[in-house]
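Marked as duplicate of an earlier ticket. Keeping the data here for the record.
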Amino acid sequence: MLECLEFYKVLSKLAEDDQEDQRAIYKNLAVKCSPAASIHPLGFVLPKDGRFLLVEGCPTNVSQFKGDSQNAEDSREDEDSCEHVEPGPLPEDWTDASFIANEKESFTSLPVQDARRLLSWFCIGHNNHIWDSSSNPPSLPLPPLWVRCDMKDKESICWMGACPMVHSSSIEMQLYTATCKGPLVGTSALPSLDEVILKHKARHRVNKVRTTGYTRYVLFGPPQGNTSLFERCSNINVEFWWSDVNHLFQVPPTDATATLRIRVEPGDVRSPVHAAYKELNFLARVICGLQTGEMDWCLGDETQTAATLVETLINELKSCQNPLQGYAKKESEIVETPAMEAEVVMQSNAIPEREDLDFCEQLWFKMKSAVFSYTSIQDCLNLVLQALANQEIQPWTHRDNSSLLSEMVQQSCTGAMKYVPLVGKAPLEMLAQIGLDKIHRDYLTYFLGQELTTLKHLEYFFGMRSSLGLQEQLCRLTRLEHIFEVVAICRTFLSIPHENLFLLTMQMLQFYHDRPVDPSHVFSLSKPSVDKSLYENEQPAVWHVDVTSEQMSREAVSTIYVSRHPPVEHCTSTMDGTMQPFFNGGDGGTTLIDYEENCLYALTITVSHVKLG
């Protein structure tokens, strides 16, 4: 009994310690308390933001406990005959300073009998009757306790857990047992929905049940068979919820509630506007070079030198009878290499091309794909300034173009141009200014032209530019570029209607008003109009059904869940993947079946309740 209380005090001490997500050693056990935002190994059981205590075994002498192992029921019988025990100091085996690195390969699983003993100690510790009333017992309740099991028993138990639940003045313990079996070949091992309902009624002695279905389809995700890029690829899923499920793997009915989950990785090579991302990335390198004095040059696909392209642009302007016309060409007409041409064709299918490019924007477009050194930037700008100073060309620029080069263009028309020496940071500053102006106008034209928002909602990103530094303008453009990619992917690959794109754009503008770009953030769009042909013939990534019944004051739930990925990390499997959350809690059983072609893994979670004195 003393050992039981010592273990409980160790857990209490660890739960109160500020050094979360670190392991400590106690009697050959590795114990840690997770932070509030951590993901549980069985994340479908606990809330995503809930803290929990985790127990694993050390590499050696994992199961050396005092006395013989016994199950939780035997330990609870000992509770009735115990006397009050004064808490006393922490045991010597507890080493508060011996926090060790979080390396999964360093820790092992525990035998089921040892796991049951630890959980029984955890339950006993929550009973106020065992603590001496003259001393202060540890604070109650503690975070849920979870023990990783070695799956060597007949039932293949992989996790066991206990979650304290406070009801008025009493504490009730919710006990979980998770078993994993597999691989299973074929779907014949799966029970029918009728069989699940009959077992649920027999287990909980009820006559009426209700069924709720859930499924998730991947509409835009990593390429099939390529899991190495999973974390860096964009993912767009659609989730459905509906009542009155008819059979397993049922396609969602038309009245099902749908939600789009959208996570787009900036710079995804499959994006129809990937060329716009590369353009902004080049601008970012230029601005970074201004700050650090060093620039990362990347050779593009352009076969001609930047000076040659600029000289060609100047000659075209000289040959124009009307200097205000004839050179605002579409970008697709300017591209000459096959690789760049393919990008522009893909981008033109997603967004309309601008036909109002002014001289500075044309110059930026020529230089961004061909400059490869500081000297090449100087050469290009020298050609332009000489032509302007000699009044060989009189190009036009947009009225709201605030760049230094635009100012010099306007001065050249009156013969009073002030020449700026192209030394030091001046060439990079001029290039960054015309790039910022061009990309700003690209995004403004797109969002307003497609009626996805209003000028008022874009004021934060475009207003008061003269008072912002180059770096801050770049940061705001980067956020807009992410919104741009999300909208383009949804429109091109999912054919999302305009009213849904408008709501999505407004949501993202509000999100990025005061936040940096967050590639991991998932945007949600409720009740979207999704073309049924995108998913009705596809295999769902997740499918499950909840069978629920009322049992006194609580609900009893049995769930069959189907996923593509292995259910637990230490389940013997050659398959790669991650667990998807699905469990909503309850007094029933939860069954997860994981498949890869014909291989199935079945995870069953049973829940029971124990009322403590």
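See parent ticket for discussion. The chain has 15 helices and 14 strands.
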